Amino acid sequence: MKGMNGKLLTLLCAASLIFYGCEKEEDPLVNVRDGKQVIGEECDMISFEGQTGYRTSVESDGGRTIHVAGIARDENDEPVNQNRAMIFDSENWTGDDDDLATTDWGNVLIVQQLGEESEPNDNQWGAEMRIGFLEPVTLTSMRVLDIDENEHDSWAFVYVQGEDEPRRIYLEPHGDNVGFTVDFGHIEEVIKLVIWIDGDGAYGSGAIDNIKFCVPIFGDEPTEQTNCDMISFEGQTGYRTSVESDGGRTIHVAGIARDENDEPVNQNRAMIFDSENWTGDDDDLATTDWGNVLIVQQLGEESEPNDNQWGAEMRIGFLEPVTLTSMRVLDIDENEHDSWAFVYVQGEDEPRKIYLEPHGDNVGFTVDFGNIQEVIKLVIWIDGDGATGSGAIDNIRFCVR
User: Which of 229, 238, 382, 390 is 20 to 30 A from 37 via CA?
Assistant: First the structure.
């Protein structure tokens, strides 16, 4: 991970004084918590839909008030001490902001360009977006749009109650018009989120969307607790009909390969692949920090793990209904542009469908399922035009009662 420049560290606190300051916040729930227990959680999202114009606060989809602020930097790379947080409709873009144009994201949050008040247009000289929660939350994920090579020094700073320094997550450049998901991994007790968009010199446009979080529910009587777990595939090798989650749960797995005629082969070829020590010709699955992933083994190749180039279907079966949170996907390129996750929910006749957008060879990304409850099966379909469809999955996160 790259280091942060001195300018960011100097300005982050100074510019933030527009709200919240830099001092350590007190616990706003201290009285609520006295004598009570956490009996569950309620999850919510800030999608910015149904809201327009400059904002000092927004409403979450669940009706919670969330403070927002946007600090723009000028052409000299200096912060302007006024709030310019603005709602931008990415499906009906304005000004010269076609780099924020999307077909299905709707409203996003930007920092409005200095000197431009007539229509939403993100500031090209850099920005700091601040999200303030009225109570500590568990931060799950967010979407980010339009971090290109000019903004390669961009970060998310997560402020946790009781911690002196924020946690830092690097926002990797993906390019104009490209949206991606940042998986925060369920950071608890978050009181503030700061997005710093910047690069070499005076560059730093972009937008954020769909900030997902959960809040605790307090009560006098304890109830069944939620236990969260993950399938990382670590410590396991070879062909598998089941795997163990990190929490020791048995999870059924199967992998159906398709042949060169695009026909399924009715045998289980689910295989563990070590992405840090890749084999065969699978350098498109090579990573430095993902470790083991799950693939569907190539037909006609048994000597070493190697994902099937003609397409695959991976099945994950839970022994009890779970709340499905997220997973990581590796190596969905343009040839596999018809790839999907199918989530089977107990009591529903049809699976829920999540599109797996192509990101390219060696590129990993996170799929945020948004805490889908009562999930009994997850099917990953990797495919494209004709007989193509390699790839891998990892870090399937879920919770059980």
Answer: 229
Tokens of 151: 């903004």
pLDDT of residue 119: 84
Range of the domain at 189: 6-219
Each residue of 114-134: pLDDT tens digit? Answer: 888 888 888 888 899 999 999
Are residue 166 and residue 256 in the same domain, yes or no?
no
Confidence of residue 28 (pLDDT cuts 50, 70, 90): very low
Q: Is 299 exposed, middle or buried (0-12, 13-18, 19+ CB in 10 A)?
A: middle
Mean pLDDT of 58-65: 93
Question: Tokens at residue 335, please?
Answer: 């040839």
DSSP summary character for residue 16: G
Q: Return the structure tokens found at 308.
A: 């099937």
Residue 23 has a pLDDT of 41
CB 328 within 8 A of CB 180: no
Shared domain for 104 and 192, answered yes or no, is yes
Q: How many independent structural domains does the chain possess?
A: 2
Whether the full predicted model's pTM is greater than 0.85, yes or no, is no
| Euclidean distance between CA atoms 156 and 85, whole angstroms | 16
Question: Which whole-number Å values give the CA distances from 375 to 142, 325, 343, 347, in the listed order?
Answer: 22, 10, 7, 10
